[in-house]
Design brief:
Length: 71
């Protein structure tokens, strides 16, 4: 049975991990602020969007990049 259950890993996964690694400085710099907020900071959300790690369909990420006067 275990042979029939497998994990599908996209061929794009290694490239995505490289993009995440490249964001290490931003992630580390904002870690304390994110911990206090209980969510990602706007800078980290923008960096993840810019790197293609998350897409605009992710509610919190897109909210962080939209204008505060959009609504």
């Amino acid at each position: 049975m275990a042979d029939s259950i497998g994990l599908h890993v996209s061929p794009e996964f290694p490239a995505m991990l490289e993009r995440i690694d490249a964001l290490g400085g931003v992630l580390e710099a904002d870690a304390d602020a994110a911990e206090k907020l209980g969510r990602l900071t706007e800078d980290v959300a923008r960096a993840l969007l810019g790197a293609g790690v998350v897409g605009p369909h992710c509610r919190r990420a897109s909210a962080a990049t939209s204008s505060p006067h959009a609504n």
